[in-house]
Write a structure and sequence with these properties.
There is one protein chain. With about 350 residues, the chain is an alpha/beta fold. It has three domains: about 5-110, 2-Layer Sandwich (Nucleotidyltransferase, domain 5), CATH 3.30.420; about 125-215; about 220-345, no CATH class. About 50% of the residues lie in helices and about 10% in strands. It has 13 helices and eight strands. The strands form two sheets. A six-stranded mixed sheet has the order 1-4-3-2-5-6, sandwiched between helices. Strands 7-8 form a two-stranded antiparallel ribbon. A hairpin with an 8-residue loop joins strand 7 (about 260-265) and strand 8. The longest helix is centred in the middle third of the chain and has 33 residues, at about 185-215.
């Protein structure tokens, strides 16, 4: 349907900016000065082989849906690919938003050396992320079914205690009881809801088993799981979503990329730090904070029982008493992320008792 080609000016193309889409793809070819010398608007069928017979180019795309797939395709045919963060490339689009303007904006953003490209994910990394998304889908379905059963039974005066594990026994007891007002039709419907909950739990368990097999064969995952508060889900999500942690210049850069560092509102001699940025991968950040919260609760339990604590747990408990549990959990997640970077960068095992020492000047 779409296969138009338009030459804009003379010059040899060395860079191509591609505005990805579902059906129609806009391409802007630029010369050594990043000036557009050719444009193309292609359908999906024509786009699949549009760069296969061209000399090696610098391909620039936004890190959006299907970008990693096309990046792997173009790398295999000899091109160099850069994936730019969409939020940074958007600032280079002038005036109205169109496919042509987006492609031209990408070409302009390619000139900025301060924009760090997004690493190209392998098919295995994307597959692992897909498993996490499917598990989250089943978890949401399970939660919705549990809430539905709770709400329906509460209308008939039957209250279920807190805890997902208590739902099935309580619902079964209500269905078998003859002294409540539950209509027979609703009893059959609630039995189907219990089957849905059980089906979701089985699907989640199967995905966790698949993630276990992936982690067993991934050295990076095994190293990540040595840290307190980092389990199977967090390790596989970080390995798939972030890749090699050592690619970040420092641990602070990693924590900032995950949105675990405070926002800054500074000018002149006035420096003001606010709440955490909440940028980057929401899912990985959530897992790290939940893991830190679990580690903090475990430390409090160990202290109550008189068991020994490592330096990190002692620090986290002292911070919780001073700043509160939630702030301490976020701070512990920040520290965990930075220490994971250090362990990857130096090729060392995670040590919760490690003490950083500055070299003498």
């Amino acid at each position: 349907m779409y296969a138009s080609t338009k030459s804009v000016s003379s010059g040899s193309a060395v860079t191509v900016a591609i505005d990805l889409a579902k059906d129609v793809f806009e391409l802007a070819f630029g010369n050594a000065d990043f000036r557009i010398v050719e444009r193309k608007r292609l359908s999906r069928a024509a786009f699949a082989g549009c760069l296969s017979n061209r000399a090696p180019l610098d391909v620039v795309m936004e890190a959006c849906g299907s970008a990693h797939h096309w990046a792997r395709v173009f790398v295999r045919v000899g091109h160099r690919v850069r994936l730019l963060p969409a939020q940074y490339a958007r600032a280079y689009v002038h005036r109205n938003k169109t496919d042509r303007a987006d492609a031209a904006g990408l070409l302009e953003a390619a000139r900025c050396g301060a924009i760090r490209p997004v690493p190209i994910k392998s098919a295995l990394q994307q597959g692992t992320q897909g498993l996490h998304r499917v598990r989250e889908f089943h978890k949401a379905q399970r939660t919705a079914a549990i809430n539905l059963a709770r709400g329906l039974l509460r209308e008939f005066g039957i209250a279920i205690p807190l805890g997902a594990a208590k739902v099935r026994p309580a619902v079964l007891a209500a269905l078998e009881a003859a002294d409540n007002e539950l209509p027979m039709a609703l009893r059959h419907a609630l039995a189907a809801v219990l089957d849905e909950i059980q089906s979701c739990e089985k699907a989640m368990a199967a995905i966790e088993q698949a993630l276990t097999e992936i982690a067993r064969n991934d050295i990076r995952c095994l190293r990540l799981m040595q840290a307190g508060g980092v389990g199977l889900l967090t390790a596989t999500a970080m390995s798939a979503g972030l890749g090699d942690l050592a690619r970040f210049p420092s641990g602070r850069h990693l924590a900032s990329a995950l949105g675990l560092t405070p926002r800054e509102y500074s000018s002149g001699n006035t420096r003001k730090l606010g709440r955490i940025g909440k940028q980057g991968d929401v899912y990985v950040r959530t897992l790290l904070i939940h893991g830190a919260r679990s580690n903090l609760l475990q430390a409090a339990l160990r202290r109550k029982r008189g068991q020994p604590l490592d330096r990190t747990q002692q620090w986290a408990l002292a911070l919780a008493e001073k700043k509160g549990h939630n702030k301490a959990a976020v701070a512990l997640a920040n520290k965990t992320a930075r220490r994971l970077w250090a362990a990857e960068h130096h090729g060392a095992s995670f040590n919760p008792d490690h003490v950083s020492r500055r070299s003498a000047a």
